[in-house]
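Translate sequence into structure tokens.
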Amino acid sequence: MSPEMVLVITPNGTGHALYDEKIDLNTLGPLYIERATSIEFDDESQYWRVYDRDGFPLFNSPSRQKCLDWERKYFSNPDRLMEHSLSGGANQSMKGGDNG
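Result follows.
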């Protein structure tokens, strides 16, 4: 079972999370929000694709909702969350998804 929300606070006080309104993060101070991924529709393949910030494909599906669900599950792992926060991208092969 995945946690409802993962919030990682680094030693310098910076928080990292997949944004969700379950915790009012504004109460912690000013927010700086940067997307870890983008979910875009590929007209040619007719699939939704999840890309990291470097444009590297991570997941694909004909369903946008499946991509959103995958993103939430993927970033529920604190190590992955920090890996993407610190490196700016995934730098790994496409995982799972519906091939297309």
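Note: The two ends are 28 Å apart (CA to CA).
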